[in-house]
Amino acid sequence: MGRRPEVFVRDLSMPEGQRLQRITRTGKDPVKLRRAIVVLMSAQGQPAVDIAYLLKATDDYVRDVIHAFNERGFDALNPKWRGGTPNKISEQDRDWICVIARCDPRFLGQPFSCWSLSKLRDYLIATGRVATISIETVRRILHEQGVTWQSSKTWKASNDPNFVAKMRAILDLYDHPPAGGRVVCVDEFGPLNLQPRPGKAWKPQGKPVRLRATYHRDHGVRHMIASLDLATGKIHYRIRDRKRSIEFLDFLKSLRRRWPSETLHLILDNFSPGPLQDRGMTG
Prior knowledge:
It is a single chain. By secondary structure, the chain is an alpha+beta fold. It contains nine helices and five strands. It has a five-stranded mixed beta sheet with strand order 3-2-1-4-5. The longest helix is centred in the N-terminal third of the chain and has 14 residues, at 30-43.
């Protein structure tokens, strides 16, 4: 059997050659880029066998690209994408899959507390929500709808029977500050771990500043007691070695000296070492 006759692209004009070069340099579509390379190499005199060897393709593929370009021009470089198989899972079923995934399985009569992809798939098929579905399809649907695997977070509610009344009183102070007084939020922060922190500075090359990772806290820790003036947004604070009721009352006295002629309405957090209430310090 003799060798098949070589097939070459037709003679290209200068603008056509420049257009092919632009496609090979900046093309984003891999199919269009591959076809443009075939046409350009054929225009340079490369036989179809050599082009197929360099591109790891078949001889018939190279010849088909060349014949198509000779017949239709640059339109032959564009891929003709098909629509694919129709979607077997409706949008309503996709929404239901996400709703079920966000539910506690125990509420649906299941003997476990969280869904895995395989358990969710089995439940969907067993309840007749879908006829068949793969684990990968379940994962992809959840990902497209923004449903991700997350760790549970905990939170605490107050057990104070007067919590609602206190909350409303504090919110009322926020929204309607008294005309003859000043609203101040007071809290403490600590213990503060005072130790050298790594940073950046200009130093000779090869001689960086070193800090001991085993720093000994010879002077202990510190505590900060601070207040926020809602009228000005300024913070008033004190740093102390301890945070007993003595230090806290001294800080309150500093607030009185700061505003000697005003009625102070203090909003305190859960730090209450003395007989102070959540709202009120008048004088």
